[in-house]
Amino acid sequence: MTLINKLTNQDEFTGFYILKELEVKQTNGTPPKDYFDIVLGDSSGQLSAKFWDASATDKETFFPMDLVKVQGIAHTYRERLQVKISKMRKVTEEDGVSITDFIRSAPVQPADLMHTIKQTLESIQDEEMRTIVNFCVTKVEDKLMHYPAAKMHHHAFYAGLSYHMVRMLELGEFICKQRPFLNEDLIKAGIILHDIAKTEELTAELGIVKEYSVQGKLLGHISMASNWITEAAIRCDINLHSEKVICLQHMVLSHHNLGEWGSPVQPQMAEAVALHFIDAMDAKLQMVEDALDTTPETEEWTPFIRGLENKAIYRMKKEL
Amino acid sequence: MTLINKLTNQDEFTGFYILKELEVKQTNGTPPKDYFDIVLGDSSGQLSAKFWDASATDKETFFPMDLVKVQGIAHTYRERLQVKISKMRKVTEEDGVSITDFIRSAPVQPADLMHTIKQTLESIQDEEMRTIVNFCVTKVEDKLMHYPAAKMHHHAFYAGLSYHMVRMLELGEFICKQRPFLNEDLIKAGIILHDIAKTEELTAELGIVKEYSVQGKLLGHISMASNWITEAAIRCDINLHSEKVICLQHMVLSHHNLGEWGSPVQPQMAEAVALHFIDAMDAKLQMVEDALDTTPETEEWTPFIRGLENKAIYRMKKEL
Amino acid sequence: MTLINKLTNQDEFTGFYILKELEVKQTNGTPPKDYFDIVLGDSSGQLSAKFWDASATDKETFFPMDLVKVQGIAHTYRERLQVKISKMRKVTEEDGVSITDFIRSAPVQPADLMHTIKQTLESIQDEEMRTIVNFCVTKVEDKLMHYPAAKMHHHAFYAGLSYHMVRMLELGEFICKQRPFLNEDLIKAGIILHDIAKTEELTAELGIVKEYSVQGKLLGHISMASNWITEAAIRCDINLHSEKVICLQHMVLSHHNLGEWGSPVQPQMAEAVALHFIDAMDAKLQMVEDALDTTPETEEWTPFIRGLENKAIYRMKKEL
Amino acid sequence: MTLINKLTNQDEFTGFYILKELEVKQTNGTPPKDYFDIVLGDSSGQLSAKFWDASATDKETFFPMDLVKVQGIAHTYRERLQVKISKMRKVTEEDGVSITDFIRSAPVQPADLMHTIKQTLESIQDEEMRTIVNFCVTKVEDKLMHYPAAKMHHHAFYAGLSYHMVRMLELGEFICKQRPFLNEDLIKAGIILHDIAKTEELTAELGIVKEYSVQGKLLGHISMASNWITEAAIRCDINLHSEKVICLQHMVLSHHNLGEWGSPVQPQMAEAVALHFIDAMDAKLQMVEDALDTTPETEEWTPFIRGLENKAIYRMKKEL
Amino acid sequence: MTLINKLTNQDEFTGFYILKELEVKQTNGTPPKDYFDIVLGDSSGQLSAKFWDASATDKETFFPMDLVKVQGIAHTYRERLQVKISKMRKVTEEDGVSITDFIRSAPVQPADLMHTIKQTLESIQDEEMRTIVNFCVTKVEDKLMHYPAAKMHHHAFYAGLSYHMVRMLELGEFICKQRPFLNEDLIKAGIILHDIAKTEELTAELGIVKEYSVQGKLLGHISMASNWITEAAIRCDINLHSEKVICLQHMVLSHHNLGEWGSPVQPQMAEAVALHFIDAMDAKLQMVEDALDTTPETEEWTPFIRGLENKAIYRMKKEL
Amino acid sequence: MTLINKLTNQDEFTGFYILKELEVKQTNGTPPKDYFDIVLGDSSGQLSAKFWDASATDKETFFPMDLVKVQGIAHTYRERLQVKISKMRKVTEEDGVSITDFIRSAPVQPADLMHTIKQTLESIQDEEMRTIVNFCVTKVEDKLMHYPAAKMHHHAFYAGLSYHMVRMLELGEFICKQRPFLNEDLIKAGIILHDIAKTEELTAELGIVKEYSVQGKLLGHISMASNWITEAAIRCDINLHSEKVICLQHMVLSHHNLGEWGSPVQPQMAEAVALHFIDAMDAKLQMVEDALDTTPETEEWTPFIRGLENKAIYRMKKEL
């Protein structure tokens, strides 16, 4: 069984994979024939594949997100590796494989991530702030167990959103120790709430974003989270005009830093400035780490990364 | 009694005015002496003024927003007209003057503006939308009677905010007739709600913005209005996830059109596109009208207008 | 006979259409074969189509803008509907169809649009202004009967340019009533002249832009219209340095508002500010209306609209 | 007699100067006294000066642009050299000084500049182009004898506009020799016409820009020159749609290169690209040369230059 | 003895301060008199002050950076606190005060900062990298003991540059632990070298930037540090084309992230991305901390901070 | 034998060409077949070509940069001319053709270009400057004999880099004569050094850029050239802090003018301003000239040129 990121040109192979994408297309020939344009995935990455001469039965058998056993050959096409599938069948119970083995996941178990988030939540000393954060986390706890943080940008994997939160909490804890004038409650609450409405902005399955919801497009997760805080305060009987409520909303609203990046107000509290940079540093370094992980080790350069001024990242020689 | 916009160089005059600004300053001489740096206002405009040799009594007598009787002389200083005050006393009851005679106001009575707004509100056919708009208007009805729409940008006068709403409603009604595919309820609701949270973003007195509130700076009127809609829906038992609530919030959130102008999302509904242009057209034309009104008719050009790419406006000769 | 915007996947159909585009291409097979890559159009919209195995005779028979009778099947290809043509012949007299039935048109007859434009022109009270506008309209009256207002951006249909003018004139009339300080002659003249030189900037046929002329690319319709005003004044013996001539040129030159949008000067007259927003509002709302009209009613979202920050427009549920 | 750029701190001096600016101001003292805020100029530069205790007679005697004999002392005020005038009288015939000795001028005589421009004009081989250029030059020949090229930006001195033209013609001649594919007629015509309408965009006296005309603000010299070419063609019976006329207008319209720099179209001919860079190089290098000339030689750095990204220019040590 | 940040309106006080700035100016009176325009400083902040009627002796006695004993009164002038000095004398030995008590300093002793930097330097495992970093640190060790990191932007205090380095090293160490794929040697070296050439870009005294050097303006500290690495490699016989040298130069060159922020190349290594964000986070949070520290605790808002989108920072109420 | 820029639709032809690019691809048919996707080149231009049914032998015979004899037919595909190759063989000695006949070259012999560069170098009067320039030229003399100046932007042909230098030197000589205050040594040195590190930023063969080097991507030619000057000074024992060294580095670092164009500092010397415009003018005019040369003379417009605001260039009719 061969991992996708180990395949090289002309490798013949057999293995289990997930059909991350599957589209029926037609050749340009006369008459045109149906074929499958596929993206094969496993935990190590993904690869474009073709399955020529898809029969009527095939078209009723295979669908996106199916687990399949594939026999094929890897070859280079337009400078990129691609797979030509010669045989394919759906996985059966006897194969003893589980879908979670085939998707990219956070390196920490979702339950552990949720545990950390809840523990942090409990450690918020201000009772009203804790109540508001708890209201929001409880609302979407199920989704926090598996949602990615974004479509492609960063943390685009199973439980990527809560992994992003937890890593930010680590960084936040360090910064609060280094600069004790920061209000630690506000930093913790801001980190947990800043992207929490992505759970309703997007729909996701197995760590893959399916689409943006109508609400997500029309309001965006930043304004949605601000509305959630309003809702939490009302439902839990907290004064809407209290400084806490306003400051929590400010943290969420300003965390993209600039208007052209989606924030209607700019950071105007020490903790809001900190939140923006904690978020940016974690997201950007994760993009770099993901790109290096999913680029074959024989390559000096990763592909261009849109979130990094569309630059590729250079991988130093090991001996350095 | 001379209106401010009629004064010219070397005019000696007596009249009643409001002290729009008053600051105690000191001359550079030795020893330095106290004087008042003043902005005199009346319904026709405002003018910078000096009151030299302010005595200790004077300093305890005169304060901003006082009505005063002034004797002085107008003279040109650094190419701008200025007043040197020779005598000044506070207005007494016998003078028979009222503060509302001294401030710039909307050309329609506040009560009439409120009447139009409420009538429009009642004409919204969708019951839940009407309920939400009514909740928000009721919340700040007092302030709508007198707040300006902005500090200096546009409609910076008594009842300027509700005047802006009413003029936009007129334009909105026209557009809905011209393009019947537009949802008129949504246009009406969007116009009434788009700037309504300015009443808590700012504090204003007599049509003059005093300052931005903490909440106003940290959240901004756009996000505040979105939160108010959330609050209205909860308090009035309307489904927070209904399309109406989301669309109303989208109208408000997107009405500045671009991220760099303060909108966290861009217009993505026909009515939101219309709202943005109705708002822009009314605001920009009012800036032009205000500038022409407060510039002496003998001047060909108004001062530079920040909201119009910092351009001055040319006044055509009458015979044209 | 099936309208294009009613076709759905796997529909077999026969009908009359216009060949909006037709290009001879070759398959990648060995040996490659010729086929037609076609855009079929009718009054309801347009659709991509293929006609495989085009013979030598076919290549001498079919050309762009031909009316044809087509038998084919609609199918989904790469998530977009496409037509595979099985039979195609040119329309004959007996078919009794006329080309004007197959193109998108303004919802008002061109003659009526021209009537409105001329009536408005006659209502301009200043004689010299009226003379200049009349000179320009007369120059290109034929083209005003059918030119679109743009290639794809907005009003891209038969008589779209004069329809845009007429709708703007309606809006202009409203604004002049709402703000009587505006010079109505200048507003009328500005609306009629602002895009009039598009008739020489572009060449168009049946409401479809064919290409930009050399003059159009090197000068642009804004500067061309300014030159036309100069020409009109000279030919009609009007003083080139009179305020009227200069103001009319200013209206035209500034109507794109900013240098990066093509205006060499920014609006510096009340009427020029109004013209810019009247133009913008009409163009943007027409984009929205066109997009909603040509998107199947079953779709929640229109395609992305380049002129609206590349956003798609959401169509509310009917019950709202 | 001391040149302005030779004065240093605490120099007492007597000399003849021009009053480039004179404004009556009042001291802050009680009672305030009148004084003159003056800019003294001579051919070497200019300096701020004060004349305290201006009498009523003084106020009726001295006006801007007067030549005066001054006795004063130079002193440093807020890090800048300034003059305190102790005595001042108007120049009389006996003094034998002429105003042209006191203003910055092009280093070549205006008559010689005009001679070069006319000779170049005559050397344009295409008769119609030559006719158009001649029409425009003849129209404003008087002003070309003395107008500056800009208010402060570059060539802001007597006959600066024609000097700029002549220097560009030299550079244009070199480029045409280096790249023979360029049309020399078009380069010559473009250089002479590109800024020629500045003569009506501005009013200037003695090489100093007084103000922008209404026409200049509303149309700008770029569009004005385009209109002049239209006028020239009509008056001289040249076909308005001929390629020559269009290309000449394109040269003028595109010479600022980008929309945000005022050009409604971008260069789309080889000669238009050349014209833009010939203009830019001459203007920028003149800014540098002017800044170095008018900065005392003891200074390492010139003041900041707005037209050069607001950078100061470093003057290398001589021995280099 | 009163600390500057404790003074309030109308306080009469006596104390020791440093003359951070002192300029001789003249009053506008007749005749004008000399006075000192002063900036008084101590370890808690700084304040504008006037010393009226400066005698000839005074002008030969007091100079910037002198320690003085001052008797004065604080008063509010144009909404800002200012001091009027009634008596002033230079500090004598008997006063027993030392200049280092009067300037803002890093909260860690310079010697300790240097110790940390050197220890970190020693811990770089790659010998050649260590050699290069050591060469650069040794070159400017003296200045690292006291230079600020910037003129006003951030860390503008005694030993601010090395304090910035040390805080970044702490953050770098955390990030390397959190993301072990990062090359720790490169992070350490990048942090120490990124701003090291500021020691030759600027001249500074007592933690205050005096001016930019010619070299600093013409090359900038980013390119200078790149040149230093070249120099270090040559002097220490390290291969100029080795990956280490190139990577170190890349770290330094790219650390401002974007071209418009001064970096000729954008980060293209994981460590370079990390360095940029470590630098940004430390600089921005220090700006916030400095602004809050030097703003009286009674103020809700700090002044506007240029480096934070020109926003003011809000200080939460304590009870939160 | 037919030159590429003379081919038109349906021409059958035989000739010698170079395989500028050759990639093995597969048809979409079943089973897919191998074919060559080729770019054929000669001294007149280049053209896309297909060689269908590439055999196993073919795949071991033909490689990029081979000279071949081709028999084929030109045909229009998607509005662009393309070649279908029917026969192809490698060139043999008997064919008597040389690779240099098949590539675009500077119109001057490389040896002559180098001669001019060296002569100019010798004419630099300052000994140390001359030494530094000589060190850099000597370092890469081989590459200067054949490198292009860029990948596609401008001077993308054999010896394009040294041709660019020589043309700039001509222009520089003219400017120094026109403005004698410029330091001619610095202009000469700046021109020779400004792009010299492109020889290590890129790898090129036969005038075609193969790729950017790791060093080229991580440092860029601007910073690399600055480092070379440092190296030259050290190796030749010239004071690194001398004004000459700093000024030479400034010339190189600032020649792209703005940060967003890659310069870490902006021009701050007269000669640096001149260098930027000399470079820009030569590069832009060469782009225009190249585009006109390689566009068939029957075409009015060149393709869009990325370096010229993505505009096409219009070719005037000859008779003009």
- For this entry, what is the oligomeric state of its chains? homohexamer
> What fraction of the residues of chain A are assigned to beta strands by DSSP?
15-25%
Q: How many strands in all of chain A?
A: 7
Largest contact between chains? A-E, 41 and 41 residues
CATH class type of the largest domain in chain A: Mainly Alpha
Mean pLDDT across all amino acids of chain A? 90
- Total helical segments of chain A: 10
Q: What is the annotated CATH architecture of the largest domain in chain A? A: Orthogonal Bundle
The Rg value of chain A, from CA coordinates, equals: 23 Å
Could you say which overall geometry of chain A the principal axes of the C-alpha atoms support?
A: elongated
Report the structural category of chain A. Answer: alpha+beta
For the sheet with most strands of chain A, the description reads: 5 strands, mixed, barrel
Helix proportion range of chain A: 40-55%
Side by side, the strands of the main sheet of chain A go 1-2-3-5-4
For the structure shown, list the relevant keywords.
320 residues; alpha+beta; Hypothetical protein af1432; homohexamer; elongated; OB fold (Dihydrolipoamide Acetyltransferase, E2P); 10 helices; 5-stranded mixed beta barrel; two-stranded antiparallel sheet
Describe what you observe in this structure:
The structure is a homohexamer of 320-residue chains. By secondary structure, the first copy, chain A, is an alpha+beta fold. The first copy, chain A, folds into two domains: 4-102, OB fold (Dihydrolipoamide Acetyltransferase, E2P) (Beta Barrel); 110-288, Hypothetical protein af1432 (Orthogonal Bundle), CATH 1.10.3210. Chain A contains ten helices and seven strands. Chain A has helices at 56-61, 110-123, 127-139, 141-144, 160-178, 184-194, 198-201, 214-235, 243-254, 270-294, and strands at 12-26, 34-42, 45-51, 67-77, 80-90, 202-205, 208-212. In chain A, helix 3 (127-139) packs parallel to helix 6 (184-194) and helix 9 packs parallel to helix 10 (270-294). The longest helix of chain A is centred in the last third of the chain and has 25 residues, at 270-294. The two termini of chain A are 33 Å apart. The model of chain A has no long low-confidence stretch (mean pLDDT 90).
